[in-house]
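Title: Prediction job returns without error message
Component: structure pipeline
Severity: low
Priority: P3
Assignee: unassigned

Description:
Job completed but the reporter wants confirmation the result is attached to the right record. Sequence as submitted:
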Amino acid sequence: MKFNIEHHTRFAFNKPIGYTIQQLRLTPQDGFGQRVSNWQVKVSGISSTQLDTFGNTTHTLVMDTPHQEIMISATGEVETDIDWSTDLLAKDKTKHDDLALPIYLRNTALTEANEQLIQFAQEVTSKHQAINQDLLTALMNSISQTVILDKTTAENQQSAIATLAAGKALSQGMTHLFISCCRALKIPARFVHGYCFNPTTKQLENHSWADAWLVGSGWQSFDVANNAPSNGIHIRLATGLDYRDACPISSVMHDISNEKMSVDFKVHEMSQMQQ
């Protein structure tokens, strides 16, 4: 599939503010079945581009004069279902990572486990003799049966422990729970944030899923909220240990109590590739 994407974000402030720093993770990269072309990020202020610790392309936006509005636009084309194994010059990102795998065993405040969560993970593994795709699929299924996807909540930083206790969450919370279970089982796992295309509504949505590392197979992707492996409807923007590492926009400095944010997605499905 090939998509033409427009992602516009507007921050409006009730009163002028003098200083803003934001970090933007709005640039998809080639790999993991996707190819990117003509991608641009445009902002109201001055921005610089760099790679972060996890290899994400980030833009740091700085506005140091009084302002009541920030406009951010990310546009371009992404083709999915690309088989990168046929490109001898391309690095297979599925089986490669620039960071040592033990880093992805580190827990954060959003992925730490308690006794109840560890027991939940162990109940799944007790039915499997090896750490493999079947085990991770069973874990994904178990979470989907235990936690309801609730799009009415605004809590995108719901922790793994809170998600299991509440029994409902956004995709971010369900992903934190999956990652926490993986790390409790000594399986390296990371958070992925990006877009998910809904073929029924033809709409693009912010969405989160997880990568888990399997020996011999590399990174395998699991969309826990949809209880399915990631596929041609997923477009990845950034990865990290949790949502805070991979979220599309994070404000390093300004008074968020004074802000109102609006987001607009436009997507055109350009073609359906032959499978």
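Comment from assignee: result matches the submitted record. The chain has two domains: 2-82+249-271, 88-244.
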